[in-house]
Fold this protein.
Amino acid sequence: SCYSLDDQNAIDETLMEPSATSLSQVERLAKVEASVKALEKDHGMLAAMDIVLNHCAGTAPWLLDHPESAYSVGNSPHLKAAAELDEKLGWFSNELKSGRMGGPHINNHDDLNRVMDTLAREVIGPLKLWEYYQVDEAESLRSFKEANGNAPAFEHEDYNAFKDGCLPSLGANRTGAFVPASISKKYCRDEGQLTHFLGLLRNDLQSEFGSLESDIYGAIRGVITWERIECKKGPIGDGHLELVPRYFRRLKLTEEAQKRLGKEEEVVAHNGWVMGWPATEDFAAPSWRHVYMRRHLCAWGDCVKLRFGAEPKDCPFLWDHMTRYAVSMAKIFHAIRLDNAHSTPLHVSQHVLAKVREANPNCWIFAELFTGNFETDLLYQGTLGINALIREAMQCNSPGELANNLQGSLWGSHPIGAISHIPTLSRRPTQQADSGAGRGFTRSASFALISSGKLPLRPRGCPALLFDCTHDNQTPREKRDPRDALPNAALTAASCSSIGSVRGYDELFGENPSVVFERSWYKDISGVGNFTLNWPSLPIASPRKQASPETSPTAPEVLEVVWSSAVQQEVVARGEWDGWAKPLPLQKQPDGRWKATVPATAQALSLQYKFVVDGNWCCDHNQPTADDGKGNVNNVLRSKVNGDRPNTATNDPIDGPAVLTSSLPGIMAVKQVLNSVHTTLATNGFVELASQQLAEDIVVVQRRAPDTGRRTWFVTRSAFGRNGGDNLPEWTGTLCLPGRIAALHVAATLFVPYDQPARRESGGRLEGQQCHLHLFKSLQEVAYVWQEGRNTMLKLHHFPPGSILVFSTNPKHEKMLTDELENLLEPTMMASTLQGLTLSDLNYLLFSCESEELDRSKGQRGAYNLDGYGPLVYCGLLGICTALDLERLKNNDFVDGPILSNVRNGDWLLGYLTARLGDFPSLCKTKAWLESVLEILAQMPRDLVPFQFDRVVSELCCAACNELLKGSGEFLARGSTSSSLLQDLAVAAAQFWAATPSAPLHWDRAQKEGWLKVPSLAAGLPHFASGFMRNWGRDTFISLRGCLLLTNRFEEARDTLLVYASVVRHGLCPNLLDAANRPRYNARDATWFFMQAIQDYASMSPEGLDFLKAPVELKWPTKEWDATLPEPKCVADLMHTILQAHAKNIKFREWNAGSSIDEHMKDEGFNIEVKFEEETGLIYGGNEWNCGTWMDKMGSSEKAGNKGWPATPRDGAAVEIIGLLKSALRWVSSLDPAIFPYDSVKLASGKELSYKDWNSRLQASFETKFWIENGSGGYYKDTLGASRQWQDGQLRPNFPIAMAVAPELFSANKAQAALRTAERLIGPLGMCTLDPKDKEYRGDYHNDDDSCDKSVAHGWNYHQGPEWVWPMGFFLKAWHRFFPKGSGSGSDGRQEVLSKLLKHRAMLPANAWRSLPELTNSKGQVCHHSCPAQAWSIATLLDALHSMSTESTPSESTSPKKVTEESLTKAEAPPTAPTPPPAPAPTPVPAAAAAAAA
């Protein structure tokens, strides 16, 4: 360790051969470089060099020229008081050493008290350190008064900031500290305020000195107590024998430096470390902790702390000197160890390492980093690009801590059986070639067996370089027990990280040689030869048989209990075979003896027991006995397993051990084996690790190669202390080994006599402690070994502290099972199980929330409930896979968590998943495939099951999702491979189409065909999963385009449209369908979304316009509700009927009006009315007491007074209804008469109105009626003619719906202005349902609010601010249509849209429902009363993305003000003017509306 250097840019002559001492420094560097190259070329060794940047030797000659490079009293005057104290302490130490003031001996606490009393009297008192902690009020006032224009202006009163301003001068002058004007002017309003603050500061500094003085005494007493009384360091002397460590040293400067600085000497500070000090802070800088003054520094008396400053210009010589030093080493050596990295300023290390990498781009940099804070570690690692961090096994305080660290990610471990970090939907079908040769060294089974088109970034700690012991920490003899050197080395070799050691560890040095004071040489070691480890070959796995002797459990051994005397009447025995619970009767034999038998168990090969003879407890001393540890002597039965008979575990030979004798010092012979095993494991892909404890001090570590299934085992018994004997604890566990033992690598015990000095030297050479390393020749010498089925059991019997056992096993049966599983996971095999499945089948396989599952199973089966997790949100594959994906997100070891614990402990979850598929006959192939998987996993080692379970369910889930996407048309099938957002939306779209007994699409059909044949679309999950509330007209038609049409589910969409068509009544489509039993016709907008859905279906499905010829039979004929209308026979007829009914006005009272259909609505609310306005073509409807659009919250709180009051009636002409009407008119006006044989409607006045004329009237009147101009641009009214007039002008997210379906209604410049205004409604996921600036805005919805606040009670504010997701889709469609090239200079319309979907993209895979919610509360906060999965939230965003891929971009030259009818029918996007023309004069609006808009 070159930690204290005189000259960083010179090679010391003692490192040179005698003949080379006269070489120049350049020649010496060349000599070193040649040596390093020879090591690499001749011996295959790479070389590293230690570099230290934050200190140098106190004797460094260049310091005398450049004392500014160190922290000194000159450049850091706040250290002056501390330096004065340190110098006086040095004087006091010399006085004591010389025999004055009581003399140098401090042997007990009386001596200590004598010294402390003298210290107070002769040192601390006379120093008058309190003078430094006064306040120089005169200087502070003068500075304030004389401040010129450069002084800062007053900001605010802040005493704490003012107080900190005195720190640079605190300790610098006996006149006291002062606060400069640069601080006082900023925090003091005037001179009076300054005077007040100075008074406070005076009191605080007085208290500060009291605390500081107490710390000085305490620190000095603590050091003396430890060194003189505890460690018995001896009398006070020179150097490291001084009374206390020196914090400063005095330098005699060179003549040149004296001239430059005007002084002959400089006092500089030593370096060291401070307990608990934050690594990113400088302990020598001014601070209230006063490290040097309080004597809190653990000082390194031979090192001076370097002061770099903030940048190179602050100390040019030092930056250049240390950079040249580091670069020169990097040019020679392969690696750099950054010593004391946590105490080196981060910006300095960053600068130097950047230069190092310029000189040697391949330089491997590892560091000593002890920040004590994981986040700070990450900061250093990320800033410096550290390749590895030094970790140390000796720093663990117990065997358990060592075992846990070994299997932790910070020590480079990947746990055995850990699930892959690749998310479910990022996987692709596993190819057989993936598991063949040529893959090489893999990081984990995830890479070995799982294919993925993309690998996610995973959080990973900095790689570890694990030392058994480092050069400047305690050895096993000092910290534990010398015997622990062997198990500690074995556990280090067992790790998955790179490993290291220190010279002397293997030789059993009692203490590490001091890097400061040691002058002896190491002892030469002879007899160390090359070592080759014999590695067992892998057996060839044969196909699995259903029954064979090998797979049958071995019959348990039977032990006899015998009482030899024949004269007793009754003999029984009690013993450990049943926990001493019941008497075991012995039967009298013909020879007079009494006998009984008990089975030997794997867990107890030694069973203690007692006889009860004629009621008396006794022991037969002619048979084996044992002490139970409590003073009782019992008879004992011992199993003959591996005792009196050969190893029964396997007939295969066991190789090894690798070493039988040792002539090398210490543990070197075994260390050769351990190092070879470690290297072999690394190069053969043993990348997985698990640890366990058989007893408190017995640690087992296994390394596994996922490619082959082979395992190597390290069994150690630590010696962390000298208490306790060599016997094994009676509770020592039995080790279960999958497979057969193939090779014994080493078995050894280390014995070290205690009565040896820590430091041993012979002939001027250092040597280790005397010891005996016992090497065992066979496994049976240390353990019983036997076979149980396919496993090998191992029970230690002779294994004292300081013992190790290292062996390897081969997994013959495991390999067979793995091969069978690979065959099942072959893509064609898996695909065959999914062939022919419908959307409803796939929905059941993948999803099914608990409400749906209970409905289908008649209440017998709900969601699977995991301990520590709760019920899964879906009962299908994605319920499990999403839970696994969430584990992947939050865990880095991928082995912990409720779901993984569940599958590790049993096959219940896979059994549940398999059994439920029996409810769907169409899934019989999938069920059979899962049953085969279940049979295989049931036989696998349980530690591997989590990984294989994850593979099985995730790959089946991925295959099912691919089946979904494959049938979803080119846009989704192609786009989902490159866009995770598209993929997740497309999969989520399948969550809602499902068959349930209680909510078929059509009840009568379900009774005839069976409910499985009549699925329906749920509005949301879980609140709308089953029963009459499952299917809603408005939600269905808004969702139809995204959930069914874009996914190519045309048959399902057609079926849905025709069922709704059959129940049209009064010219209205129902909102609540209730399986076509008791629909409710209280929505004005559902009809127009229905009409839009017909248009979408006809334009997107292969059936096209022929759909308009599809037959329709109304459940309630027109004669029952309007005899003047003809009975429709087909879809085209029905469309005309709907338009005709609206043209002649609609007026009726809801069927079954009253509390039976709505318990909260007032009587007037059941009156349904729609009116047509001839002049404008607008349709108006509703009244103040009902809510006929999607904003349909009816008040229900009598307490708050909102019961029966709609929060948002939106009566009149709702803007989105007008847009949908316009879309319908535009379409029917363009249809061929052969398809749609109608060209007009008859009005209530008896007049005829052609569809084209109606379309034109709407076109002409819309902007005149709806546009609101304001100072910021303007927007479109939400309604026209509302009974609550102010609500007309409220800013809501409804006009973008009209823009998306009828863009021709909007002038480009006004549309753009309105969309910019609507941007303020956009939240993280959804759109505010009301402008946050509106006085009625209430952004947080709580349906259980039982307050007296009318505006929020019982969730009355459902649509008064909360952020709904589905309007976002229409907004984005409108935005892209009117801003195809972006909204600003150099922007991109597509990117602007996608940027608004980043939160959606992140949320979809990261929540249990794998979906998007119905709504959120303000600013995207979770709304717990919202559906977490909502169909229209998914559908409209999917539609928006699709629209961007299909709309063409207008040319730069065209810039019409409107989207024309012609451009729309040609499917062109609306052109946008580069610079919008001036807006027309605003249309007058009602005062109330204008006020609301403002």
Observations:
- DSSP finds 44 helices and 52 strands in the chain.
